[in-house]
């Protein structure tokens, strides 16, 4: 008998940590974590099985497929946007081929179990591509269907995987006798920049905000790599995890689309710096603009329209800008770095 379980790829990543802890508290199901790196011991302890391996390794995926009856797949593994620009070929393999592999497992699972498999995919504001700062300023708040011309490898990968997910959910093998026999309940969120007090970021381009905060908390000088007026939406990690739950728990009939924007607050880099300084007044935070990374952030919207998420599954952030700092970031980062 195959054991019933939930699979989380990218389990050791920033979202993975928070999600696994929350799933452990909220479901009785066995959690299987797959990551290219060894999990940290706290998270490892709550997983039923911790698999160290690559989502491109068919042998590992075949074993998971044959050993477990997966009810839900949270496919979080990805190369983030800065890293992807240095290795676009690898990014395509991990971000696209990897997603295709996981969707194929979902198909096999659905067929063998005879029921829909829930599939969560974290997309990103990187799917948007505003031509330049002028267009960004003119566009203001963007809706899900606008400006889908990503300028980054990561953005291209995410946008294409949203489309793949929609294809698997709605039209997979439509010309064959098997049409309709695999039911993939694909659900995606386009996340803004995420800020965790617990994990330090790596490989992202929205990371200037969390990097500023983590550096300040550790008493390390920081040079922000984007201009002080740079504005994109952000959200705390706990809100991102809550959003995943809200979306995944929503009845399918309530969902009018497969991919949703969500937002919480969108300070400029200068406003973020000021708020960090309010709690860490001795922090040395300067600006040393990297033109190439700046251009990437300038192609991302200053804000997104999340009215569909609010309407369909009751999305509402718990943390606005001030609450993010006062209720989460500052207290948790003080604990994280043992600051009294
Ligand atoms: N925030 C991510 C990054 O900067 C995008 O999803 O890579």
Shape: globular
Quickly count the helices.
Answer: 13
Percent in helix: 40-55%
Number of domains: 2
CATH-derived topology of the largest domain: Rossmann fold
Order of strands in the sheet with most strands: 3-2-1-4-5-7-11
Low-confidence stretches: none
Termini separation comes to: 52 Å
Main pleated sheet? 7 strands, parallel
Bound molecules: serine
CATH class of the largest domain: Alpha Beta
What is the SS-derived class? alpha/beta
Name given to the CATH architecture of the largest domain: 3-Layer(aba) Sandwich
What does the radius of gyration come to?
A: 20 Å
Tell me the strand percentage band: 15-25%
The CATH H-level homologous superfamily of the largest domain: NAD(P)-binding Rossmann-like Domain
Question: Averaged pLDDT, please?
Answer: 96
Total strands? 13
Salient structural properties:
alpha/beta; Rossmann fold; two-stranded parallel ribbon; 2 domains; binds serine; 340 residues; globular; seven-stranded parallel sheet
Written overview of the protein:
The protein is of the alpha/beta class. The chain folds into two domains: 3-133 and 142-192 and 235-261, Rossmann fold (3-Layer(aba) Sandwich); 194-233 and 265-301 and 321-336. It has 13 helices and 13 strands. The protein starts with a strand and ends with a helix. The model has no long low-confidence stretch (mean pLDDT 96). Serine (SER) binds next to loops.
